[in-house]
Amino acid sequence: MGRNIEKYVPPHFSFSDLHVLVCPSSCCLHVSAFCRVLACVFINDLVAHLCGQVAINMANIANVYRDMNQLQKARDLAENALAIYERSSKSGLGEEDHPDLADFLTVVGGVLKDSGDLKGARRHLERAMSIREVAHGLEHYRLAATLSELASTYHELGQSPKKTQRLFERALQIATSAYGQEHPLVATINVQYSEVLKVTHDFKRELQLLQDAGRIREKVFGEIHSAVAQVLLLLGRSQLEQAKFSDSQNSLEKALRIYQELHDRSERAGEERHVVDHWMKCRIEVGNCLVTVSTFRHRLAEADGYKKEVAELEEKRTKTVSQ
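RESULT FIELD:
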């Protein structure tokens, strides 16, 4: 079986007595004891498997709550999932640093990052990356998500942009090689990477990554989805900061339409609503969009006034030169 079962062996049982399987004259007591050993191993195996499945389901739900920005619920579920998995892996039937452990560490690390516990996030994500590199090597597809979360954490901790860029580039290269250019993970990495590019003033690449992320998410999730609206909101704000007013208006108003549709759906659901927190988030984002669009319109008005003034000055200058 390849497992350490000595701790389940009754005190009177000796592994030298396994000859009972082929020796009819052996004591029936030993046969009974050996059967109890096998039963203990089987039951413990089953319990460990069930615990593992519970932990996986809890981690998946934690990710959903994270997407809904319900970070306390996400954190509670993610940390409980990790604790359950670690207890089952230390029961003698698993490996303490099994590659699956890195999945739970990555989930917890991501939630801690979003919750503001950057040191805790860094600790979990660095451990996850170490486990993955030892288990799978440096270019395994399961490294991509962990690298991206760790790079984002380093960025928020104020570490060198060059260091975080190297990690993001590595994550992108692994993800695109493993999944292709149109995978949701690639979109997530693009969104996280864009925050670093904003700091390094690589605005062209920042916009390109956000546009790619929006296209991928719309293709995967459909046009009316909060993940699409999230990217459009980031894209519109970035375009606004770069004075791309027309593009900004298009992106922000499209995001606004998506959030408004999600809001309207929640209203139509009435008392049947079972994810009220998510819909409340949609309402909040609608408000954020309105504020951003109104800011855009104010800046656009300023720009139009400035353009008019410049045109008048140019006309005066031309007249002066001709005289």
